Amino acid sequence: MGTLINEKLIKLDMEVTTKEEAIENLAKLIHEEKKLNCVWKENSLDKCQNCDFCSKTGFLHALHEREKSFPTAVGYSFAIPHGKCGSVKDAAIAFARLKDEVKWGEDGDEDEYVKYVFMIGVSEEAAGDEHMRILIKLSTSILDDDFRDRLSSINTKEEALQIIKEYSDNIN
């Protein structure tokens, strides 16, 4: 998992008030790291006039569709929104520790609040094995008390990256 995340894909104490804002901000980090591509060009359609818009919009659409089918809060104040789509050029993980918890469930769902968000982006081609491998590693890490405690007390992106890599490398 070490090559999927770097310090530019980590945001500490992100100030958001909704799940949608958290998703938008993390998708923006993935977009800024050039992990998304232009879906128009790849499909040999007319040249896109705004590649930044279409690649990020396609990825956001995939993320929102996944959230509609089942919210991605996994307990312990964590959520793992994930999207599989043609907009993803290189698989990526972004992480945010939110300044304040936000409600993650939809209307009618249990009120689940989230403070830590791992976002996963994978291409449709890599959706099977790679997607599941990443989800399993993150989910297993989240179950570990020490992992959660350490993420709650970090002060820098470097510390966050070190902890994430350490735990993902120790999971087989």
UniProtKB/TrEMBL annotation:
SUPFAM superfamilies: Phoshotransferase/anion transport protein (SSF55804). Gene3D superfamilies: Mannitol-specific EII, Chain A. Residues 3-167 form the PTS EIIA type-2 domain. Pfam families: PTS_EIIA_2 (PF00359). InterPro entries: PTrfase/Anion_transptr (IPR016152), PTS_EIIA_type-2_dom (IPR002178), PTS_SugarTrans_NitroReg (IPR051541). This is PTS IIA-like nitrogen-regulatory protein PtsN.
